[in-house]
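User: Show me a protein chain along with its predicted structure.
Assistant: Here is one chain, sequence first, then C-alpha cells.
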Amino acid sequence: MDTFVIPTEADIRKWVKEAVKESLESAKPKEVLVTNTHEDFMSRKEIAVRLGISLVTLTEWVKQGLPSHKQQGRVYFLYSEVMEYIAKKRPKKKYDWIN
C-alpha cells in the first residue's frame, strides 16, 4: 500500500509564495522606455490641442504610424517625435524652394 503525505499549512503557504513569486517575475515588463531628454509625455487631448486636430484625426494618424507610447492602457506622445514624424510625412510643395 502507498503512503500518502498530507501537506501542512506551512507547505501550502510555501508553495503559494513560490507560485506568486514566479508569476510576478514572468510578468515584469520586458523593455523599459528610456529617453535622454527630460521631455514630458503628452496625453492624447494635449497633443491634439497642440496640433489643432480632433481626437478622431489623431487616432487615424496613430494607425498610420504616428509615434506613440502605451503605458498602463493609456496612450502618450512625445512632442519632438510627433513633430519629426509630421516633418517627414508632410508632402513637399511643388515650389518649396520659394519659401
